[in-house]
């Protein structure tokens, strides 16, 4: 009786340079335990320098490796047809001056953007009129309103982006997380459509003499 295994590729996977990837690293298997254990340990790919940052492995490549080693296994692929491997390479530590420069650049840029927005909408005038409406007194700098507003602006940004530095406030993804996810998904879809190996992948016949 033919032995059957279901195989589902992961959408993506991170790997170190020259790290050998096995079937278990790029796919989930469902079948008899002893068969799954054998398939999981089969090597699939080892990234090299020529691969740059991404490698696309399609399901036929996985099937080729499985049938070459275990030709009597009936593998039924389900789900995605490709998986995108992101290769993580060793990076040089950034210079403190480089980090400081970009920190100042982002700080000044964001501060100017906030100030220009408030100037465009005449926020100071709004605060002055609101203070006059509440207290009945005119004041050039209504700090009683401006200070809580400034604190609330910062807290609002923290809650909106759901992060305090690297710490996430809760499990709900922020709009920035969703945008990054959509961006990565777009890259993966593009690579899957353009970088997939389109060559035929023969393997030994299941009925050939062993």
Observed structural traits:
membrane, 10 strands, elongated, 2 domains, 3-stranded mixed beta sheet, 7 helices, eubacterium ventriosum atcc fold, alpha/beta, 210 residues, 20% strand
Structure commentary:
- With 210 residues, this protein is an alpha/beta fold.
- The chain has two domains: 3-91, eubacterium ventriosum atcc domain (eubacterium ventriosum atcc fold, Sandwich), CATH 2.60.480; 96-191, no CATH class.
- 48% of the residues lie in helices and 20% in strands.
- The protein contains seven helices and ten strands.
- It has helices spanning 23-26, 33-40, 59-69, 96-120, 123-135, 143-161, 175-194; strands at 3-9, 12-16, 21-22, 27-30, 43-45, 54-58, 73-78, 82-88, 163-164, 167-168.
- It has a three-stranded mixed beta sheet with strand order 4-1-7. A three-stranded mixed beta sheet has the order 2-8-6. The protein has a two-stranded antiparallel sheet with strand order 3-5.
With helices defined by DSSP (H or I, 4 residues minimum), what is the helix count?
A: 7
Assembly of the depicted chains: single chain
- Give the helix proportion (percent range): 40-55%
C-alpha termini separation: 17 Å
- Beta-strand proportion: 15-25%
Please describe the biggest sheet, giving its number of strands, its sense, and whether it closes into a barrel: 3 strands, mixed
Q: How do the helices and strands follow one another from N- to C-terminus? A: EEEHEHEEHEEHHHEEH
Low-confidence parts: 206-210
Count of spatially separate domains: 2
Structural class category: alpha/beta
Strand order of the largest sheet: 4-1-7
Rg over C-alpha atoms, rounded to the nearest angstrom: 28 Å
Principal-axes shape call: elongated
**Mean pLDDT across residues:** 84
- Give the number of DSSP strands: 10
């Amino acid at each position: 009786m033919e032995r059957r295994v279901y195989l589902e590729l992961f959408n993506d996977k991170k790997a170190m340079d020259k790290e050998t990837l096995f079937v278990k690293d790029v796919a989930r298997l469902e079948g008899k335990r002893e068969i799954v254990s054998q398939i999981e340990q089969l090597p699939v790919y080892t990234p090299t320098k020529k691969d740059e940052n991404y490698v696309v492995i399609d399901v036929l490549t996985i099937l080729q490796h499985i049938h070459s080693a275990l030709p009597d296994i009936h593998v039924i692929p389900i789900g995605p047809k490709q998986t995108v491997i992101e290769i993580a390479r060793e990076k040089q530590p950034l210079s403190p001056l480089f980090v400081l420069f970009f920190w100042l650049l982002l700080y000044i840029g964001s501060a100017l953007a906030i100030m220009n927005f408030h100037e465009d909408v005449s926020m100071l005038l709004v605060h002055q009129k609101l203070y006059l409406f509440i207290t009945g007194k005119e004041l050039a700098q209504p700090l009683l309103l401006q200070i809580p507003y400034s604190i609330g602006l910062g807290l609002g940004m923290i809650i909106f982006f759901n992060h305090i530095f690297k710490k996430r406030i809760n499990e709900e993804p922020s709009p920035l997380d969703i945008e990054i996810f959509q961006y990565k998904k777009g890259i993966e879809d593009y690579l899957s459509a353009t970088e997939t190996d389109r060559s035929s992948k023969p393997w030994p016949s299941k009925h050939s003499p062993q």
